[in-house]
Amino acid sequence: MSTVPLLEVSGLCVDYGLGEGAVHAVVDANLVLRKGEVLGLAGESGSGKSTLAYAVTRLLRPPGVITAGQVRFRGSVDLLAAGEHELRGLRWNSIAVVLQSSMNALNPVLRIGTQIADVLRTHRPGMDRGARVARAGELLEMVGIPADRLRGYPHELSGGMRQRVMIATALALDPELVILDEPTTALDVVTQREILEELMALRDRLSFAVLFISHDLSLLVEIADSIAVMYAGRLVERAPASAAYHAPAHPYSLGLLGSFSPLHGPRKRMEGIPGSPPDLRSAPAGCAFHPRCALAFDRCGTDPPPPLLTLNAAAADGAGRREVACWLHDGTHLVPAELAGRLEGTS
Ligand code: SF4
Q: What's the gap in Å between 327 CA and the centre of ligand 1?
């Protein structure tokens, strides 16, 4: 797998509103996604994951404002400075986005085939009608829907099939990066698993990179190469997926893993995380997670934890780097058994 970053997010900050009343929805986010890699971005609703995705793709709408940072695509394209013309050239062609409610975004009065062909007509003006129909059929079959469904209308398809149509449409122009924001959340577990397996098979075949956003960390660790966890607008942990699963270093990651059943393997008891994510208009002092953290101690209520500390210095420049923003890992504390036992041998 190439080590050249396809997408590099550095110091990204996004506010809602301006001045003293601004809500800091994303604070100093740093992410790297390499060609062909799957990066899972986890966190509960309101953690800032979707805002980050909207900012990266320049789909953010007022009162959202990008206040700092840089987003580079293929190293040379500055997405935050790109003009509308350049962005139009990149969207669909190079960067495709499937948003949370996109399966409900299909036009109910247009046939499926017409809607896929519209994307091809707009972005591949040289393609004739026959080639567009053939490509639309090929795309549908790629996501497990018979090509004769091109003549169908959205209401004739199940929710899972409509979501597959959206994924097929996103892949229409062979993008290098696909951003999927909770693409299977509204679907039952069986359909969810089928779609994810198909998606990962397509990723293996077509080598596009994926930024997969979900509140379900258990799902992400099954499909992603690496994981980033967000809480209250900040990244609190970054790790290879296997390390995030076997040895979560942040108490919030540990709580998220205990909140969802895995897609595969034996059933397990759901623990959940007590309380709710904070209202960002009045986020708690210190570590924003402290009111819900069973491992909190005095300092957590007063001092914000340092931004992502590297746990395994030997991998500091490599893809296996493990980072966490939590006072328990600043080197002056005994890491509690809940985390220490899991961390053994993982650095
Ligand atoms: Fe919990 Fe304190 Fe770590 Fe925050 S800094 S996650 S409150 S232990």
A: 6
